[in-house]
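Final report, section 2: Outcomes. Of the targets proposed, FliO/MopB family protein is the one most frequently requested by collaborating groups, and we therefore present its record in full.
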Amino acid sequence: MFYLVLKFTFSLIVILLMIYILAKLANKQKGTLGAGKQIKVLDRTQISKDSYIVIVKIRNKGYVISYAAGKSDIIDELSEDDICAIEQDIENARQEMLNKYNDAANLIMKKLHLKK
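The predicted structure is given below as tokens.
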């Protein structure tokens, strides 16, 4: 019985460490994905079952586009300052989520009496 509990605990620790390491690696490579693309969807919000409002960056220009059932229309054009502000907000939200994840991972490691 003791051997089974020990084996289970060790397996759980190994799995948690693997998840932590993979998350760290994925975060490092996130910046390189899509680095050469000219079109980037910054944000998308669903309005109804089949309609969306999308913020798109094409090179240095930004557009607010409505998309519904195969039809899309440009609602507004955004300035470079607006695009920079949106990208900064997205980066801040991503960094906040990463910090929460790291805090949770550190708490789990601490409870398991492991060091980073």
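DSSP finds two helices and four strands in the chain.
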